[in-house]
Amino acid sequence: MSAYEELMAFERQTGALAQVAGRLGWDQETVMPRGAAHQRADESAAMQAVLHARRTDPRIGEWLAAIHNSDLDEVGQANLRHIRRSYERMQRVPEDLATRLAHLTSRAQGHWAEARADEDVDRFLPLLEEIVRLKREEGAALADGGDIYDALLDDYEPEAKAADLQTMFDAMRPRLVAVRAAALGKPAPQGLSGDFDEQAQMKLARKLAKTFGYDMQRGRIDKAVHPFSSGAHNDVRITTRTSRADPFNCLYSTIHEVGHACYEQNIDQDYGFTPLGSGVSMGVHESQSRIYENQLGRSRAFTGWLFGQMKDAFGDFGVATEDVFYAAVNRLHRGFIRTEADEVQYNLHVMLRFDLERAMIAGDLEVVDLQAAWNDRFKADFGYAVNKPSNGCLQDVHWSVGLFGYFPTYSLGNVYAGCLHEALRQAVPELDSQLAKGDLASATDWLKQNVQRHGGLYRPRQVIERASGAAPSEKPLLDYIEAKFEALYEI
């Protein structure tokens, strides 16, 4: 075997083990008995130790030194780029630190869920304080003298910089706030009310998943506290949640996670267990979930079809027409929960988290002061007070599992989705007539061919630029939001 062949055989084994480690997390969030939490923490830490040892194996450096880029095709060069980047980053993080983080975050996840259920911030903050301390340590090791937050951000959006994201957010905020103010000054559309059977919600959620192209032969849908997608290649699982008073929570969480899952399922099969066999970044990943959920799933054309499906599932649920239903789906509303926010306000929720986590990592915000800082910022941004911790700083799972640097990729994904949607509309001019029939095939195939199948072959911004024909910009997203909500609210 050549050095490249030996390296890739090693990488495929590491990739397979990483999927096993990920499945431990899926199991923990769905069906693991509560009493197994401490054992699962030990198991996760042990898997992390094995993975860290493999990812820092000296043979990787030897193989890399023996391989010349000029001898490889585009796929080989891309594999090498990812492997070299990962190897250099992992070399900087001590194995003991990686193991301690894995053990702590596995344990903290359960504590977060219990603290959230009991509205008990004080139960969780000591663990979060320790997580932040270890993430600072990890970030400092990765940064090698550079910006610590940028080093953590690089795990989720390679080559992105917090300063650039801040510039993007600063450009987005005024236009979003202006649309929100104008819309909330108008009479509120009718919302949903009633009692929606949870089994019927799950049945419709599974139908929607298939409608959007999710292959149930290579996936499954379960329930969890916080919806997520897990896995890659031919085992990609999603979760959703139900609320008897709000079926949109279930249905649109499902569509969102299906966007993530379809990205993973549609990557070129030849890339399985290699560095190219997963989504290239969380921003690009989020672009798929958001365009599925919003530009497609909340469009006037698709909601017309969904209205009929809702009547089939729930009978007369108090909404008279397709237009009233469309307004209900896209209703601007006061709320606390990021995942339930409308398209206009969603990014404002992300900006809040981005600023707070940067401050915690920088040491400008102590964890003990997080709740007060969150509540003050929320009141300033949204105009009303947080009423309980589960609607405030305890609502998201991310910090409990150490995902610092993850939150801004949600808004970056929205920006990418705006670029892709503009290009999709040009490529498929008959899109609305198809969506009105519940036919997503042209839309999802365009995304598969232009984004998803490439996996990690190209760099994140390069993926969007190749698909949309222009450098990523927040303008298409903001133009889309303004046009949609100005028409909806007659602004």
Automatic annotation (TrEMBL):
**What does the entry comment about cofactor binding?**
Binds 1 zinc ion per subunit.
Question: Mind telling me which CDD domains this protein's record contains?
Answer: M32_Taq (cd06460)
Q: Which residues bind Zn(2+)?
A: 256, 260, 286
Annotated protein name in UniProt: Metal-dependent carboxypeptidase
- Note the PANTHER family from the entry: CARBOXYPEPTIDASE 1 (PTHR34217:SF1), METAL-DEPENDENT CARBOXYPEPTIDASE (PTHR34217)
SUPFAM superfamilies documented for this protein: Metalloproteases ('zincins'), catalytic domain
Give the similarity note.
Belongs to the peptidase M32 family.
UniProt-recorded Gene Ontology molecular function terms: metal ion binding; metallocarboxypeptidase activity
The positions flagged as active site in the entry are 257
Q: Which Gene3D superfamilies match?
A: 1.10.1370.30
Its job: Broad specificity carboxypetidase that releases amino acids sequentially from the C-terminus, including neutral, aromatic, polar and basic residues.
Q: Which reaction does it catalyse?
A: Release of a C-terminal amino acid with broad specificity, except for -Pro
The signal peptide annotation in the UniProt record is none
Q: Which cofactor does it need?
A: Zn(2+)
Pfam families for this protein: Peptidase_M32 (PF02074)
Give the GO terms filed under biological process for this record: proteolysis
Q: Which organism is it from?
A: Marimonas arenosa
Q: Which EC number(s) does the record attach to this protein? A: 3.4.17.19
